[in-house]
Amino acid sequence: MKICFVSSECVPYAKTGGLADVSGALPKALAESGMEVKTFLPLYSSIQTEDYDLKPDISNQGIRIHMGRLSHDFNAWKGHLPNSKAEVYFIDCPTFYHRGELYTNQLDEAERFIFFQQAVLRILQNEHWAPDIIHCNDWQTALIPALLKMSYKWDALFKNTKSLLSIHNIGYQGRFSRDSIYGAGLPYKYYYPGGPFEFYDSFCFLKTGIMFADKISTVSQTYAKEIQTPEFGAALEGVLHDRKKDLLGILNGIDSSVWNPLSDKHIPQNYSFDSFLKKKKNKQALLDAFALPFDTKTPTIGIVSRLAIQKGFDIFKPVLEKILRNDVQFVILGTGEPEYEEFLQNMALKYPGKIAVTIGFNEGLAHQITAGADMFLMPSQYEPCGLNQMYSLNYGTVPIVRQTGGLADTVTDFTQFPTKGNGITFSEYTSDELFQAVERALKLFKNKQNWKKMVSRGMGEDFSWKASAAKYIKLYQQSKLIKQESESIKDKIYD
Ligand code: ADP
Asked: Which structural domains are found in the chain, ordered by start?
C-alpha cells in the first residue's frame, strides 16, 4: 500500500509536541510493515539540510503555487527518516517557512499551510505517485480531503486515493478569515452558517477536514469518545458525532529506539528493571545538575510539559506550596504561557533546594528528568494521548495523572486496583484531587514492596509502535473499501 503522510512537524527535524513524535515514528513503523511511505514536511529555517543528509529533489524545483492573487514558488528537498526506508519530502519556501518558529500568529498563517498542502499534492502529481491513503494530521493538513474531492477531482491520479484525518488535539482548529477559501482554491459556496467550511464565522480547517475526510482518527480510544461531548469537543462535538461511524481512536506508540532506558543516549546511566538500582545514578546526576540535595528517601517529582492550561497548571498552581510542605522535590522543564513560566520561576527562587525549574525546550533534559525522577506528574485538563506518561512508565518513573484521554487508557490507579495498578490517577479536575493524588503517591513511595510492583508493571508495558501501526494499516484497508459510503457522504455534503 502507498501511504502519503503529511504533517507540520516531525522528529528529528522539527518539534513542538507529541505530533512530531508520532510523525517521526509511525511512518517508520509503517515502512517496516512493508508499506511504501512518503512523508511531507515544510522546510523550516531551523532544519539544517546537511545535518540530515537532505538533497535537493531535482524533479521538483521551481514549482509555482497560485493562491488567489498570490503566487509563490517552492523547491523540494528529499531524505529518509533516520534508519528507515520511509522517504521524507521537504517543502522549501523561505517566504513562508523562515519565521523562527513553526507556528505564528501572523496574518498569513492560513496561507502558510494552504501552500504546504497544495505543494504536497503538486509533488504527488509531478511524481505520478498515486497514494492509496493521504494521512493528514491536525488542522495544518486538514484541507487535503476537501482539495482531493473538489480542486483535484479532475485528476485521475487521485481516483482511488482516500484520506484519513488524525486529530492530535481538538483544541487547535485553524480558524481563519473566510477570504482564505479563495486562497485555498476551494468553492466559496460551501461557506454559509453551519456549512462544511464555516465555524463561528470563520473558515475552519479542522472542521473542513472532519467533514470531508474518508476516515477520522484520534490518538486514544477515550479521547475519541470524549471529543463527541461538549466538555471536550471544543464545539466540534456535533460534527464529530455525525461522523461517529468513521471515527476511531488509536493509541500512539512510543519510539523505543529513542525512549528506552536501556539504550537512551541522553542519560548518564542506562538501566532496565533487572538493573533498577542503577536508576539512582540518574537521580543523583539530575539533582546535582540542579543543585538539589540528593537523598534516596526524598521522592523527586518530574514534569516535562508545555506550560498551558490544558496541561493542568491552573489546578497545580494553588496547591504547589502545600505539596512542598512534604519531604519532596520537583524538577520541572517547560515552556509556554508567561503566567506559568513566571509562577514556576518564582517558586524556584522561593524554595531553593526543593524545586528546580528550566524554562525552555530541551530534548536531552526531558530524557534526564524522565530517567532521574521517581514520579512524573501530568494533571492534564484533557490529554488526547500523552506520551510522557508512557515514557515514564517504561523508565520506572511512576506517573501521577488525571484520568482523561490517553492518560486514562494507559495508567491504572494502584490504590484502587492493587493487582494491576501501574501509577496513581485522579478523576475530578480540581486542585484538591490533585493534591490528594500526590499525597497518595508520596505515601506509597515509602512502601518499597508496592512501589516495586508498580514500577515492574510500568516497565513491562509494551507501547511500541508495532501494535498501533497495525491498527492504522487496518484502518487504511477499511478506508479503501468504503468507496460507496464515502461517495454518499460526499454527495450529502456538496453535490
Ligand atoms: P503535547 O503534544 O500536547 O505537547 P504530548 O505528551 O503528546 O503532549 O507530547 C509532548 C512531547 O513533547 C513529549 O515528547 C515531551 O517529552 C516533549 N516536550 C514537551 N515539552 C518539552 C520541553 N520543554 N522540552 C523538551 N521536550 C518537551
From this structure: 2-253+469-490 (3.40.50.2000), 276-462 (3.40.50.2000)
